[in-house]
Amino acid sequence: xxxxxxxxxxxxxxxxxxxxxxxxxxxxxxxxxxxxxxxxxxxxxxxxxxxxxxxxxxxxxxxxxxxxxxxxxxxxxxxxxxxxxxxxxxxxxxxxxxxxxxxxxxxxxxx
Length: 111
Fold this sequence. Notes:
Layout: H1 3-71, E1 80-85, E2 88-93
Antiparallel strand pairs: 1-2
């Protein structure tokens, strides 16, 4: 082999080894980046689990409070009621817009 070809071969080998070395460094950087992403993903999943754990007890408290409030009966004042006047049952309404009630027959004393 002539010296010129040997020099070209040495240059090619040097370039190939540099390329191989650069690829190793890039591969190490990529592996490091993937490891960081994986650890970040795990941290985010842990934070998500902790958030859900903190939310569910509050949801249960709200649900229980709603159930308790829905079971409490509030006494509503009827707009119309039946009263006895001069021996007859008559409807008495607070406002003219109130819906009249049906008065059941009963014995009313006459005054």
